[in-house]
Amino acid sequence: MTLDEIKQPVAQPMSNFEPFFRKQLNSPNALLTVVVNYLLRKKGKQMRPMLTFLAAQATGTITEATYATATLIELLHTATLVHDDVVDETYQRRGQFSVNAIWNSKVSVLVGDLFLARGLQTAMQTNQFEVLRIVADAVGEISEGELSQIEHARKLDITEATYFDVIRKKTATLIAACTKAGALSSGASQEHIEALYNYGLNLGIAFQIRDDIFDYEKSSLIGKPSGNDIKERKITLPLISALHQAPNAESKQMMHLIASHYKDDATARQATEFVHKYGGIEYSTNIMTQYALKAKQCLDCVPSSAAKESLIAMVEYNTTRKK
């Protein structure tokens, strides 16, 4: 399925969501209005609100609480992206300049804070206190995951177990919050809420592994791997696997190269060749497929529906995507 086909069961709620979401960001502040309009000009795939609506429809009925839930999570997600660009000193996202590239880091941090505050206000105004708890847990996990990744990037000592802990916290917990809170907003049973949470967690892990594989694959846009992870000293699953499979002397040599010359394009190329030589792509793809299967199996207890089929298709879409 294409993303438009996956969205079809909740196309109308997603259309209604747009003005509801934008309304939460209304402000008399001219600078804020300019920045918000800039951020929302290229809205991306909107996967998280889509998952929230699909989870609600697959387990019950979409309600006003679902709109508030989707808005809170999308505001939180946008806030984390804006803050991430400051932390990572990133100047481009989704093909356009980041907020900190056009304005500055102070504006970026404050805008991110405001997005988070508006999300909290939306939840409070609609009495979504349980959703607030779910999202607060996710925010804590995301922050811990970021700090853990920074710590291990400095030391270059990440293990496979640490890698999975980081991506669960950084990526999967927010996706799991979408699907769990979406089911909760529909009045779903505890069994279905738990099932949708586990579905989101496994989908999120598979999603991040796919992202990490991209860094060692040829890009359809530029014809070569980006090497961004190496340049940021991020040791992800493809490289971790290759380091385990390679002879000890080669592994040590590769880690020394990354430690000393991680910003060099030549280092990124050598790391990519190393990953391909020692089966890092194949290993990571196999692990990703296992998590994708777990995600689908989590939906076994959910009644058949178009929304459930879209949730299943979302797993396929995210593990076979090319960008």
Describe the structure in your own words.
- The chain is an all-alpha fold.
- It has helices at 3-7, 11-23, 30-41, 47-59, 64-87, 99-102, 105-125, 129-155, 160-185, 190-214, 228-231, 237-245, 248-261, 265-277, 280-297, 306-320, and strands spanning 92-93, 96-97.
- The protein is globular, with a radius of gyration of 20 Å.
Keywords:
mainly alpha; 323 residues; 16 helices; single chain; 75% helix; two-stranded antiparallel sheet; globular
Q: Please estimate the helix content.
A: over 70%
Distance between the termini: 16 Å
Q: H/E element string?
A: HHHHHEEHHHHHHHHHHH
Mean pLDDT: 90
Major sheet, described briefly? 2 strands, antiparallel
Q: Give the neighbour order of strands across the main sheet.
A: 1-2
Poorly predicted ranges: 220-224
Q: Count the beta strands.
A: 2
Give the count of helical stretches: 16
Structural class: mainly alpha
**What share of the residues does DSSP label as strand, in percent?**
under 5%
Instruction: Work out the radius of gyration.
Output: 20 Å
